[in-house]
Amino acid sequence: MSKSKIKIYCFILCLTMIVSLAVGCVQSKNDGTTNTQQTTNNQEKTTQSENSTPAQTGPQRPEVLEVTRTLYFGDATDNPELKEEFMVEFEKRTGQKLKVNAIPRNGYMEKVNLMISSGELKGLVSVFTPADVLKAIEDGTAEPLDDYLKDNANWNKFSQDYRDSLKFQGHIYGINAGYSGNYFTRAIRKDWLDNLGLDVPETVDDLFEVAKAFTENDPDQNGQNDTGGLTAAGTWNLGDIFQAFDARLDNTSSGSITWDPKEGAWIDSMLKPGMIDALKYLKRLYDNKYLDNEFLTNSGNNMREKIYTGKYGSTFYWAMFGYTTCRNEMAKTFPEAEFVEVPALKGTRTEQLNHRVLNGIVYILVKGTKQPKETVNAFVDLILCDKDAHFMSRYGIENKTYKWEGNTLVILNNPETGKPYDVPGLTGEMPEFGQDKYPVIYDGTPQERERSLNDINIKNEMTEKAFKEGLLFDVPSAAYDSPISATFTNTSVDYYKLYEEVIASVVTGKATPEEAVRTYREKMKALGADKILEEANAAIGKKSVMQY
Amino acid sequence: MQKKHGIYHIFHVKLFKITCYYFKCEVIVFERKKIHRGESIMNIKNATAISNPKKVKKKKLFTKNNIILYIMFLPVLISYIIFHIVPMPGIYLAFADFRVMGFKDIWVGLDNFKYIFNLSNFWDSFWNTWVFVLYNYIFAFPAPILLALLLNELKGKYFKKTIQTISCLPHFLSWVVIASIWISILSPSTGYVNFVIKALGGEPIYFLSKADLFPALLTFIRIWKDVGYNAIVYLAALSSIDQELYEAAHIDGAGRFKQTIYVTLPGIKSTILVLFVLSFSGILNLFDPVYVFQNPMIASTAETLDTYIYKQGVVQARYSMATAVGLFKSVISFVFVILTNVLSKYFTEDRETILW
Question: Which of A38, A343, A486, B254 is the most exposed place for a label (fewest CB within 10 A)?
């Protein structure tokens, strides 16, 4: 190519880039203008509709109810049309303009923080745990809600435990959207157990035998050595094993600092004798390959996929994962797949093993939100307490993504995918709108729907039985997830790393359980972790019972 | 911490590289012509300066010939000003306490630096980073030179182009995609590598669980990703070497190896030096490649300064702390660039530094 031609091409390329840059800037400026105009128009419409609807003469509503959430109709880029349509439909049905900011699940908290920092994000923002609320208080991001909610009749009808669930330093700093409770169970391939003539495991020793048989005895009877026992993504899906050894992990099974129902206090299970036994058990599973050797590098997706593809026979995951999700996912490829779920495994500890978490989606109100009182009250009155708005916020657009059949809510299938629609999930289940009054089922053939209805009974019976046998307990809101401690907030990165190091060093044989725990103790002590337990226990009026 | 972001980063880096490459080609073509005319840069400079000093002064900044080059440089310049010069006052955050909702304290002096230096894992991740740097300079830096030399020796034009294209392809994949590919390839249960190992009668190796192996493994993957792309500059430099020198060397009895040692390498020495010195500007930047491969089993070696401070600073919204680390890294890089630039004069024939 001649020099002059190269010059011409490069010139055109540069010119295109400059022009596109300029066009891009103008475009985004225009978009902003359009949005503002649209907002103004919508606000006018909202005001008009409010003026013309008698139902809106009660408490004042915000011009826009802004809510930020991850996994709104799937992840941030999923179902864009549904996302838009829902907001329009919500306004039509309630007269309240809704704006939902969908932020990707990956790196959610840092994106939220950056957006708040740049002033882009206002309104109610969901965070993951109460510890995130505490962090938001320290950062000055969250606003106390007491004054805004004190005259709200709906709010005052809620139980004291619910209202205080996100109370810190004497003030309410968050709203729990959902308060019905969920827990993990061990899902096990029932058809594999039957093929091998094994009983449903009740203890950790039974589980070991099941894992061994699943790995060595060809449970799917295909004549190949292609199955494994347990799979997991980190220790997230091994919580029941630690519980059985009286070394329970935290609520997400990703750390050892946890609230213990026996002590009624915050403890570090790493300091309990049972932890050594639990680690030895884990090592045995790992060495014999009864536990997926990639469990520390698996993502949640990998873990689920290994179950769906029939490679592994058991994991510890959300209740009903086996009965519903796995069944639906495996219906075509492994129609014979049947699951059984075990709420807790017994070991050296036999009661108060597994925990149920009542908390739903945690929202904070970002400081500097316009009409803060109106925003918070609209959220409580509509999304938490108004039946229509509540179910819309949970399941989407009526007669498109869900429909009512009497008191039963049916989640419809997306004709494009043949699978149930993704839902907005702006709130979890409130007790007033629980499954006992409004059962939620998936659409399908009459048999499938019958089965779906039956699933609700199965879960209710399983939960009731587990509570009756003393296997399950409810975690008090103040003891949910991470300890409420400023020291913990500042050292959490190092703490989680130390915890993971213990697990990794033991399973890979770099250290014995005793050595790994000793190193952990020393490093935690150097980190000032005694203060974590002191502060967390002080927050619930207790004294620390452990020291590093 | 200055974290480079997706589209912008790709845009400015790619454009910069394309422009540099184009300029390089221009210079090469220009120098070739001079060589053909029997001139040298020094001769031209001296001759012009001595014979007609006024003419030099009168030389216009914008001419019909170079205006197009300035226009081509404009997007790079604009992006550099917007994204590198304008945010510079942000360095101030390193000396303040800036939280999500704004300044908590507008001046804290060196407190942020003291805090990070006292973090328990800071120094571990700092030294881990240097291990990667060391591996990088021992293995990754010479790799594209070697590839360029090998490609230069190939006779078949199409074969050479095919190899060049294939080796360039991984460069255009993001680290996230690359991590997925390599995690699958190295998986002990489903990976191809272990499939071969098992077929040969060996025991599967869980590569990504071996902390000691990780720096070497990541360096290998980094070489795989960038070797073809980085070789382009060296290939361009190789094409500027006068073929007559090879003929002369051949007549003098030099074989292929000696021609490489005494003709090829000296011919591209200045390019190697420039790239070597410039490579120090981002010496401690190591986020994406490490972050995407991190797992608890290799945490002891797979935590670099960037990933650690990302978790401590960015995720925890301690922006001042993150900025302090960014500044700390920049100072180290700056010192290294200055040092290597000064030292570079011992490797040039005219005993002048390579950059300024």
Answer: A38
> Does A110 reside within a domain?
yes
CATH superfamily assigned to domain B94-347? MetI-like (1.10.3720.10)
Q: How far apart are CA A317 and CA A329, in angstroms?
A: 15
Q: Which two tokens stand for residue A312?
A: 């592994």
Q: Closest Cα to residue A507, out of A300, A246, A235, A257?
A: A235
B239/B29 Cα distance (integer angstroms): 10
Q: How confident is the model over A394-400, as a mean pLDDT?
A: 96
Task: Please give, rounded to a whole number of angstroms, the shortest distance from the CA of B200 to a CA of chain A.
Answer: 19
A235 and A300 together in one domain = yes
CATH 1.10.3720.10 domain range(s) in chain B: 94-347
Return the pLDDT at A452.
87
Q: Which residues of A touch B78 (CB under 8 A)?
A: 18, 21
Looking at the fold, whether A46 and A66 belong to one and the same domain comes out as: no
Whether residue A207 is contained in a domain is answered as yes
Token pair in block for residue A66? 């802004």
Mean pLDDT of chain A: 89
Contacts with B120 from chain A: Cβ below 8 Å: 494, 523, 526-527
Nearest to B72 among A11, A136, A492 (CB): A11
Same domain, A266 and A313: yes
CB A428 within 8 A of CB A180: yes
**Domain total of chain A:** 3
A115-164 pLDDT, tens digit each: 999 999 999 999 988 888 888 998 889 999 999 999 999 999 999 989 98
Closest by CA position to A401, among listed A389, A415, A411, A416: A411
Residues of B in contact with A297 (CB under 8 A): 183, 208-209, 295, 297
- State whether B120 and A494 contact (CB < 8 Å): yes
Nearest to A439 by CA among A418, A411, A401: A411
What ipTM describes this predicted complex?
0.78
* A228 within domain boundaries: yes
Residue A33 lies in domain: 11-57
**A29-83 pLDDT per residue, tens:** 444 433 434 433 444 433 333 333 334 445 689 999 999 999 899 999 999 999 9
Contact check, Cβ <8 Å, B100/A141:
yes
Q: With 80 as the cut, is the pLDDT of residue B21 above it?
A: no
- d(CA A84, CA A78) in angstroms, rounded, equals 11
